[in-house]
Every structure is written in structure tokens, then in C-alpha cells.
Amino acid sequence: MNTWGNKIKISIFGESHGAAIGVVLDGIPSGLPLDMDFIRREMLRRAPGQNSLSTPRKEADEVEILSGVMNSVTTGTPICGIIKNTNTKSKDYNKNLLRPGHADFTGFQKYGDSHDFRGGGHFSGRITAPLVFAGAIAKQLLSQKGISIGSHIKQIYDIKEPSFMDSPLSKELLNEISLKDFPVISDEIGEKMKQAILGASSEKDSVGGIIECAVLGLAAGIGSPFFASLESVISSMMFSIPAVKGIEFGRGFDFTNLKGSVANDPFQTDGEKIFTTTNNNGGINGGISNGMPVLFSVAMKPTPSIAQTQNTVDTEKMENTTIEIKGRHDPCIVQRAAVVVECGTALAVLDSIL
Amino acid sequence: MNTWGNKIKISIFGESHGAAIGVVLDGIPSGLPLDMDFIRREMLRRAPGQNSLSTPRKEADEVEILSGVMNSVTTGTPICGIIKNTNTKSKDYNKNLLRPGHADFTGFQKYGDSHDFRGGGHFSGRITAPLVFAGAIAKQLLSQKGISIGSHIKQIYDIKEPSFMDSPLSKELLNEISLKDFPVISDEIGEKMKQAILGASSEKDSVGGIIECAVLGLAAGIGSPFFASLESVISSMMFSIPAVKGIEFGRGFDFTNLKGSVANDPFQTDGEKIFTTTNNNGGINGGISNGMPVLFSVAMKPTPSIAQTQNTVDTEKMENTTIEIKGRHDPCIVQRAAVVVECGTALAVLDSIL
Amino acid sequence: MNTWGNKIKISIFGESHGAAIGVVLDGIPSGLPLDMDFIRREMLRRAPGQNSLSTPRKEADEVEILSGVMNSVTTGTPICGIIKNTNTKSKDYNKNLLRPGHADFTGFQKYGDSHDFRGGGHFSGRITAPLVFAGAIAKQLLSQKGISIGSHIKQIYDIKEPSFMDSPLSKELLNEISLKDFPVISDEIGEKMKQAILGASSEKDSVGGIIECAVLGLAAGIGSPFFASLESVISSMMFSIPAVKGIEFGRGFDFTNLKGSVANDPFQTDGEKIFTTTNNNGGINGGISNGMPVLFSVAMKPTPSIAQTQNTVDTEKMENTTIEIKGRHDPCIVQRAAVVVECGTALAVLDSIL
Amino acid sequence: MNTWGNKIKISIFGESHGAAIGVVLDGIPSGLPLDMDFIRREMLRRAPGQNSLSTPRKEADEVEILSGVMNSVTTGTPICGIIKNTNTKSKDYNKNLLRPGHADFTGFQKYGDSHDFRGGGHFSGRITAPLVFAGAIAKQLLSQKGISIGSHIKQIYDIKEPSFMDSPLSKELLNEISLKDFPVISDEIGEKMKQAILGASSEKDSVGGIIECAVLGLAAGIGSPFFASLESVISSMMFSIPAVKGIEFGRGFDFTNLKGSVANDPFQTDGEKIFTTTNNNGGINGGISNGMPVLFSVAMKPTPSIAQTQNTVDTEKMENTTIEIKGRHDPCIVQRAAVVVECGTALAVLDSIL
What we know:
- Four copies of one chain form a homotetramer.
- The first copy, chain A, is α+β, with helices and mostly antiparallel strands.
- Chain A has helices at 36-46, 104-111, 128-144, 171-178, 187-202, 230-238, 260-263, 334-353; strands spanning 3-4, 9-13, 20-26, 63-67, 69-70, 73-74, 79-84, 148-156, 159-160, 209-216, 244-249, 267-269, 274-276, 284-285, 288-289, 294-300, 309-314, 319-324.
- Chain A has one domain (3-353): Chorismate synthase, AroC fold (4-Layer Sandwich), CATH 3.60.150.
- In chain A, 26% of the residues lie in helices and 23% in strands.
- In chain A, the strands form six sheets. The first copy, chain A, has a five-stranded antiparallel β-sheet, covered by helices on one side. Chain A has a five-stranded antiparallel β-sheet with strand order 9-8-10-16-11. Chain A has a two-stranded antiparallel sheet with strand order 5-6.
- In chain A, strand 5 and strand 6 form a beta hairpin.
- The first copy, chain A, is globular.
- The two termini of chain A are 22 Å apart.
- At the A-B interface, strand 1, helix 2, helix 6, strand 11 and helix 7 of A face strand 1, helix 2, helix 6, strand 11 and helix 7 of B.
């Protein structure tokens, strides 16, 4: 089902080569003034064609708001935003040749002959654009409540930069990174990451990476034990984003290398507030926020669309064959996905605090 | 909320030191004969006190079925199973001293003075016992449909054994591992893992690890793009399990080290079936099963309860102080959690296929 | 929340005077060929301006399908249909004068100053147009499964015609009624109903009525005991339709006048099938269909918009005053609502059988 | 599914002749002191065997609270309450003879041979006991917020008493009625209703009736347009109660006899508050509370279990035959159902205001 949320409800719709893609976002309180410039900037962070690293395919990605907003202020009723599909080249796609790493095969298994395979159809990364629109609204509401969300690229291929867990973290830093074309803490390391991407591109190949996301200003006590743990809510949203294949909170998989005496975040007080002196748990104990920054990382696989020859199957002939994917594709999706991760997180956090 | 699922509904209830813990499982079709011995064996895999590695605390963990079953066959109506709490020592717990790494602080932040903090209350790992009961039922229903679920410990502290992705995998292997006290592929490596646990224990410390889970026999076409992706559904369940801090599907975080040309799983056909020649994606493309084994790993942090002196806060005096956790605790929870991961997975898979 | 359903999900959005109204319908299987002419006819049955009984306001009500349909066949992904608002006259509405019987007051109570009050905003009966679009698709899917849904006007003001419970009922009859401008069994009685409407209109007044709906071809065994009873699912949908204030299944409120010996529908068999010889229960026992026609009636209140002077409050001055509602309004909404009731029912039945 | 609610979640389980029946109630905030005497009194209002009007079958109906309550105060985690089944006589029931008006046939259609038919199984009216337990907790929480819920029997067979809409209504009156064995405004009319019940009983027959329910103290602005209208939420709960076959809000079906000029409730102000001078709409406009008492009536059919000979089918032989229902049954269920209606309403209102 393409509906998500408990206290908010998000419904995503659309296919890469259909008339339009969009989202219905329900549960946003009335009276929130929307900063349309901010929304546009967030959309632009995700949009293709912004620099040499991404597909030259230009998409206007202009959102038309159909409902739920009057004079740029939310009315409290469902907000529907749509983005028309204008620049589509369906002829690039061959129905019978399964693209490895894509959802062509599973799409046909699930939907049969009526599956809209053109450009990935409903599986297209393009469907994250409405998610960014919805998340940008969520971000504004969270911002009113003192909550900031930001991210950086922690790794591209084998190039890494330090975690938010091991470097100074502030709202200002998150904002600063969000204004960069290539969202990293260290531009020097970012340059190396770009080289790794361009290197892969020149080999007709692709690379993946890791995005680390931070939520600042979230009060302690948000979330639930068990099924609605903050980790459950955030992860269910993150795995909605195409190409995400892993998530870890705080030290995550690195917890295996720590003993309890080091892993446990000791509590401390200044007489007024209680906090932890380390944040290995990424701001969450027992599924509930503890007032420290909520920190998690998501792993994104390399873009499956590559220009190299790959083995595959022709489903009509049921024969082994090869495919060379033409068309306009990103050698790396990670830099464009950072804002998607942030916006998805904003929706997940909003659903938890309302 | 402690209710989970779309096509099935699970409600978990209970506190570590309350009258009973239990679960309501709705959506199981009528006519399923329950193998009570199998359920008991699964419960025993999770139960404490089974060997020198785990807490000497003995829990009967005998499930009483209150509804939904007549003559050992499901009736189609909600199944309620409860486990009475008998062996509880509440005096071991001091309300004012926050245990680092536990949910004491967040529990009080969320629930206030009425929070049942005794033994972790509703946050206790003991609450996973009803999940195993429910999951054991789900496993039997899946088994009827040819679907098997198993797991092994892939890592304890710094001791690792090979992934299911890099070694032969079969239903028989999964079954064999499930019968072991210490669920690993290689008993030799398992012995080293046990030593690591005992070593931590002797230092009054604890260790965590990684459990890898496999779902065999799942047809292609199960799951959904976006919000109800198989990864979303499984991960939301996995992060319900206390101490789980990370999850990755297929290569997961290792995807960052692979280029697209290697990461993509090429399709092949034998003229009848289509499959992939590698399984880096862990059996899932675009959120939907592709017919290959579904493979994922979860990271579990070290048990937070350790006997060492730790820094913490006395919440009554609002002063910094130290705590030494007495009582009966596991130096490692991973070996007992394997069946919890499997049972949670069974519920997630069942919810996706019904 | 404006999302409904378990196995299907419907999200309705839009305001009477916004850019567009619409619906996202998720859960429709792939491969359903859409009969666009049928959809248009259903939309037309609800549309205003069709005859002298309804508002002269003409609305094109042309649905644009944005997603989920390729070459007029459903793809299995969410279907979004929108209807642009073109013929809106916002100047007819005064924000400070509460219209009696309308949701102006409650809208401001819930949404505050940002409430979109123009033309009733999100409360407008116009928002049922997308519901008809979604329901018309559901009807086609149900039709494939041998299920027909139809309705007639059982009462307008004090003019009644016999219930489906007390007259011959067939698929053909339902179809025949659906083709009428004024959907009644007996055109003679229908004529009197029309006179009652025109009479009210000439007095600057309005009237309500009762719509009876029938579901034919629904197999026994659909629905659930308790919370997801067929009555619960249908009624929750019916009370989503503006102006509906009552619902009864089978004899409903008339059950009070029957004794058990008469009310109980005795079972009978022809050796092959089991059926009941009467259908006082309206085809539902214990929340589950029994194979007889599902029959229920909904009561609709008189249109609240009337041209007579009414007492009300000026919310700005907080003073008692009067209002005369100008603009274009129906003296009776019942005849246009019949198709809305049917389409809502189609969605409810579909959610129960999938 | 036997789970209900958005902001609270209720799961009902149990069969008439199983080990126990019960409920899990999630979403009740921590810190609510439970008045166990009040809960017991509410349970007793529903319990059988209280007077000559109802079945002599005695049920202890003692609730055991398993979780979510510590020292009689809610902890904020799921509350599970169970009632053991002790006094069950399964031999009274013959699997092959379908009881007219009951869910025997539909139960077998839905659940097949594994259907627990004993005493109606999960369809039994006895399953409303846990609903009363949950609702009694909800009532206490609502009471803290100044909201009172009460009801009276408006009609038994052809004996009627005035509606709350046409007689003085106060919190005190509701309380006073709730303390009566036979919950009516006028004991004189009540006596006639009892005679009607006893008369039916002496004829081995049964009668139904109408319960009118009132919610006092609910602020304006609660509920939603469309799918989560207050009417939708309340009605979906009401039709979960066995034997309920109709519901109407305010004038309901009587709206058909009113013209808009009379039906519309004019607004008035005293300079501080806005209210309506009549309450035909039963306190709800556009699905949202308007601050007036919320008023609705539910129709209950005659108890289907009667001692008279009835025609039915022997499902084993597939032959027409007759049945005489022995055992212990109520000639009228309405007086016992009043508290069930109130408690269901309390849960519905609570779900809408949290």
C-alpha cells in the first residue's frame, strides 16, 4: 500500500511516464504558513541535472498545490501536490529485457502484463519528488517546534568522512551542509567522493554510499516501546526510498565491536537537565528519544542503471541475453538522495510527535 | 502503539513484573492445526537459564491459550496467549538510579511517575516471549506454504562466521542450526564466540553481535513498492525487538564497496524459471521479493545490564552518582534473540503474503 | 483523517473553491479495464444542473486520471483522479455569518482562522464527486465478480415507495433505476416526490429523504464479527457522505415492532444451497453476509442551504443576526446522492472482499 | 479484524465457551487512577442474571487485569483484562442445526469446519463484557475531561418514552438512569416496557428496542469531515455490538419529515458562547461536534434465541427441519445492552479527542 503514517497520512502516487506524480498529505494542522521558496529549494536539491554528477535530464519538478492550502497557509485539510511529467522518453525502454538490479522483474511478477514498466513506472526514483514536497512541509512544521533535520554524505564508495557522532554537530552545520551542491562536512573529502563518482561514470559504472542523518531538538519521550519504536517508524520510511538497503542507529553495526561498558551511554546531570555523555545509541533508548541528537545512517546501493553490457533474460523469448542500458542515468544517486532521507525523516518524526 | 500489522494484527502486552505478559494475534485463518511441541521448542530457544551463557533466572514461559483455538486447531478468531509472571524479584530495582543503555530514563520521560520501571517493565526483553509464541504460529502457517525461516549468529564481538550469502544455504541447514544451543553454521567458530561471551562475563561486561536471517521458498512478487516494501515491513518489526540497532538487506552497508557492475544481480533463465546468478540484493528488488532467498542481518548492541560500576544520575536528588547493576542478567543476548528475529520475520512475511 | 479502508485505501482531497478536488485509490488490482463511459455516466448522475430539481450551477466534473492507469487498464499502483474547479463564485460567501445546518461553525472550531470556508470548503458535497469516481471503478471490479449495487429513493419528505424488502428485486431492476433521472421504482410515486421537492423549493425551503441500497451477488461469509462487521464498514463509509444522519440494515428501526419469531429469518434449503425465506436482517448475520441481498437505507437531512431568512450569529461582532443564503443550491440533494451511496457502498464491499 | 481505533487500539478476543474472553486496550495515558468499583458496577449492568428479565445464567464476570496497571493506576502501556469462562454448558448446542437470526450459518461460511460454534463462539453477546471493561476505563478518562455519557431505553417493542431531544437533559439525569435496574427516564413507562418483555417471554418469544445515548460536555471541534466523521467513528463501533441493526444521529430518520427551515439548528450567542437553539443534528455538523449534546439512537433487533419451534436446515443432512432452542436466553437484550452502547461510545469519543 502506498499510504503511510498514523497521525499523518501520506499517499504517494504516480508513474515515471504517466501524466503526473504527486502526494496527498493529511494531518498537517491548519495555520502553517508555507515558505514556497524553501519548498522549491528542497525540491531542487533532489532534482536531476543540477551538475555534472547527475543525469543531464532536466525536470522542472514544479509542484502544483491542488488542495489544503489557502493564501499560502495550510487549512488543516489534506494537501495534494502534483508534479506534471513533461520530459519523458518512453522509447528508451524495452519491456522484454529485464534490467539487473531494477524492479522490472518483480514489477511484472506482482502486476503482470499491465505493469507500467516505462522508466521504472511507480518504482522510479522520481517518485521521491512528491516525498520531498511533503517532507519540506513537515520540516517547516518541525522547525516551528525547534526541531532541525539535516544530513551529510558519510561515504561514497571507499571514501569516508567522519560521523556526526565523532565531530561537532549543530543546527548551523546542518544548514550549511544543506546549502552545498554536494552535501558533506569536509569539502576536501567531498572532492574525493566526486572523483570516485566521476571515475565510476567514466567506466560506465556506478557507486553507492552512506548518508548520515541527524535530528536536533527532539525532546526526550518521543516514540514507543516495541512496534512503534522511533527506529521502527524511521526505518519503515527509509526503506520506502528506492536503493536504500541498510539502516543503523547510533553505532549500529559497530556496536558489535564495543563492550557494554563502552557502548552504554552514561547519564549525567548539570542539576537541571539529564543527558548522556556519549551518544552511541543515537539518541534512542527503548524505542524512545532521550533528548540527545537522533542519529542514523542509511546505506544506498550503486545506481543499477549502468551503460556496461550486463547479462539478463529476454522474457518474451525466455532466453539468456545481454542488455546495455541507454538513456539518462546518474552514476551515483547518493548526493541527490540526501534531501529525500531528510524529508522522509521529517515525516517520520512528525508522525511520532503529533 | 503496541499493535502491528495490516493483514494480521498483533497486540503485545505485559510488564516484566506484572501479572502476565501476552499477545493477541488476529488474522490467522481457521483450520491451522497447531503443533504445540514446536511452539514449546521455539519458546525454549528464547527462554533464559538454558546454559552457562545466559542468566540463571529460570522462567517456565508456559503459554496458556485463551482463545482462537479449539481442539488444537485455529478457529479463525483472535488467538490470545498469555504467560504468567511467577519468578519476579522487584526488590532488585531502584527507581531513582537510571541504568545506562536501558529505557529507564526514556520510560519516565514518556510515562511519568506511573511508569512501571520494575525489571524494565514493558521494555523488558521478556516481552519478546509472546512474540515468539505468535511467530511460532506464523511459522507453521508459512511452512504449510513451503516457506522456511532460519537464522544464525554471524558475529559475536569480533568473532565472525561467513554469511548465508557466501556459503551453501538450504532448508535443512536452517533446521539443523535451529536445533543447536548456540545457533551457528560452524560449531568451531561458535566455540570462539562463546569464549568471547564468557570472557566479557568474567570482566563483568557484555557483548553484542549480528544475527543473519534467511527466508526460503518465498515466491517472487511479494511486497510493494514504496511504503510497504518488504524491507519496510521487516525492518519495522525488527526494530521492535529490544537491542536491535541496525538492519541490512543483502550486501547492505557493504554495497558501498561494490560498483553497480558487481552489485547488480544479473538475471538468468533455464528456460522455465528466471533467477539471479548472485543475490547481493538479498532477494528483494524495488521492495518486492524476486524469488531468491530473502537475506538480512540485524545488529544487536551489548546487553546494557553489566555488573561494572557505571556513571549515572540519581533522579530524586538530581545528582551525579554511580550504579552497579545487581540481579540476573545475560552477558550476551544474541544467541537467545535468534529465534525472536526468526519469529518476528515470520509475522512480517505472513503479513505480506496473506 | 481523510483516508479510508484496509485492503483498499482511499484518500479524498480538495476544497469547493480550491484548484481541484480528487482522490487517490490504492489497492485496485492490475489488469482491470476501465470503462470510461460508465465512469462518466456515474459522475453525471451526481452532477448538478441535470434538471429542474437541482442547482443550475453547471460543473463539468471531468476527471483527469493522473496515475495508475495505462492504456485504460489499471496498473495495480495508486490511481489518482482529479477534477478541476472551474465554476466557482467565492463572493457568494460571507465568512462571518454562520450558515445554520452547515459545517461553518464546526469548521472554524476545528481549523481556526485558516479554515477554507468558501462554498463549504472541504465539507462541500462537491467532494463526493471523487468518491463517485473511485466507486465507479470499484463497481466495475465488483461487476467482474458478479456483484451488482443499486439504489432507489425510498422516501422524499412524506412520500414513500415500497422497500426492496417488500417488492421484487433483481439486477435488471437496479440497472433500470440507475438509468432514470429520478431513481425510483415507481415513476408515479417519483412524480409525487418531485412535486414535494418543487413545493419546498417554491417556499424557499428544502426537503430530505431516504435512499435504500441493495448489493446483489455477494457470497456468504464476507465481513467479520465485531469491529469489522459488514455493517460497521458500510456505515463508516455512509456517514462520510455529507447530510447522511441515519442508517439501518434490513428492518433496522422497524425491528422494534417485530417479535423474534417474526424477525428471525428461517433457513431453508433446496438440497444444494442454504438461504433464508425472509430477509429482515438485510443479508447480514453476526456482521457477515449470508448470501441474501444486502439491504440498507440511509436517511438524508434536508439541504441546509435555503433562501429563507434564518437566525444566526455574526462571529466577528459576536451578535445575533439573520442570514439569507443566496447562491445556487438544491432544494433536495437525495436524488443526486443515490449514486454517491452506491459508489461508497461499492468501495466498502470491495474492501471487505479483497 | 478485531482491532479498532486510531489513537487508541482495542483488541477483543475470546469465545463463549473457550478458556477466557478479554481485551487489550492500548493508548490510555499513564497516571489514570482506576476506580475498580465503578468498573465492577458497569460490568454488573451488563451481566446476566440480575433480575427476572434476563437469563438465569449467572456469570461472575470478574475481570483480571494482566498488564498496564500498577497500584490501580494506569502505566501508559497496553491494558489487558480477561474474564475466565466458568459456567459453560456446551452440550446445549447442536452444530448441525442452524439457529435462525444467529451467526451460525455465516460463522461456518467464514470459518469452515473449525468454527467454534459453541454458544455462538466469538459471536456471542458475552464478548461485549470486555468491551464494557475497556469502555469503563474510557469513561473515567473522559470524566476527568468533563465528558459524561449516558443512555436510556427509548423503546421496547411498541412502548416508547420521550427522546433526550424532547425532554430536559443533564449529567445528573444520566447518572440517575445509570443506577436503575431498568434504565429509563420514566419508571412508569419502564414498567410497561418490562411487561412487554415478560409478555414476549411467556409466549416463548422475544422483543427488541431502541437505546438513545447522550454525550455531554464534548467541546466543539471534535471529529473530522468525511471518513473520520464523528458519526462514522461512533457508528462503526455501534455496529460491532451484536444485534444492533440501525443508528441515527439527532432526528435521524425523522429528518425526512422536516423541512430545512425547521431542521436547521439556528445559531445564537449570549455574547460569549455560540450554541444552537435546537439540536436536531444531534450535536454534529459536517462530522464535527458543535458543542451541543451529542445524541444518537441505536435499534436492536429481538433476541434471536427463542424457545418456539422455528424452521431451519440440518447442515449435515442438507434437509429442512425445525429447531427449538433450549438453554438460557434473554427475552430482551436491550436493558443489558445500554451500558454496552455507553461504553462503546466512550471508546469512540476517546479515540476522537486524544
